[in-house]
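@here heads up, posting the sequence + SMILES for the zinc ion run so it's all in one place. Ping me if the SMILES looks off, I pulled it from an old spreadsheet.
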Amino acid sequence: MLPGQTVCTQKDEKGKSCFGSLKYYYPFDADFGETDPNIRSQIAGQCGKDPWLKLYRCYSCQALYRN
Ligand SMILES: [Zn+2]
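bot reply: prediction finished. Complex structure tokens:
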């Protein structure tokens, strides 16, 4: 993730940037966390299973960003 980045830079198959807005995302939060166990284990493998881990997720394409 780039400094000050607020929009998604994922490109689609035509090379067009997504530009979806990025929202805070707490994958291990008890109430608002990720519900998909596959995504949870993937994030835990990359970032560790920190209950306060804060990521950003694109509102449009669901891409994840780490600050
Ligand atoms: Zn996106």
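MO: The pocket of zinc ion is lined by residues 8, 10, 18, 20, 58, 60-61, 63 (CB under 6 Å).
MO: One more: The helical segments are 37-47.
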